[in-house]
Design a protein that fits this description.
Structural class: mainly alpha
Number of strands: 3
Shape: elongated
Strand content: 5-15%
Order of helices and strands: HHEHHEEH
Helix content: 55-70%
Radius of gyration: 16 Å
Largest sheet: 3 strands, antiparallel
Strand order of the largest sheet: 1-3-2
CATH superfamily: Winged helix-like DNA-binding domain superfamily/Winged helix DNA-binding domain
Number of domains: 1
Length: about 120
Amino acid sequence: MHSPNVRYATLKKLEAVLLRLIARHGARMTLGELLVITTGMALLCKQDRVSVAEVAKLTGTRKQNISRWMQKRLGNSIRLEVNAQDERIRDVILIDPHRGQEHIENLADILGTNK
C-alpha cells in the first residue's frame, strides 16, 4: 500500500496537469474531448495523418462525437480531409506542428518527461 505522501504527490501532479489543460482549453471542455485531442495529437507526432476511426478505436469514443469536436478546432492547427482510398473515411491532418509547443513543454515539466 502506498503512503499518504505518494498519494498526495500523485494527486498534486494530476491537479497541476488538469489546471494546465484548463488554462489551455478552457473549463468547458470535457475529459472525453481532451482525451480525443491528446490521442489524435500523439498519433500525429508519429504519422502525417490519422483517421477519425483510429482515434475512436483507441479512445472508445463514437466517431460522430470526434468529428463534432474536431470541427470546433479546425483551422489553426488541424484540418479534416476525405481519405483518397476510401471517401467514407475522414483523416485529420496536422497543419502547424509547432502550435501549442509551450503548452506541451509545460506539461512535460509537470510530468517529468522533458529529460
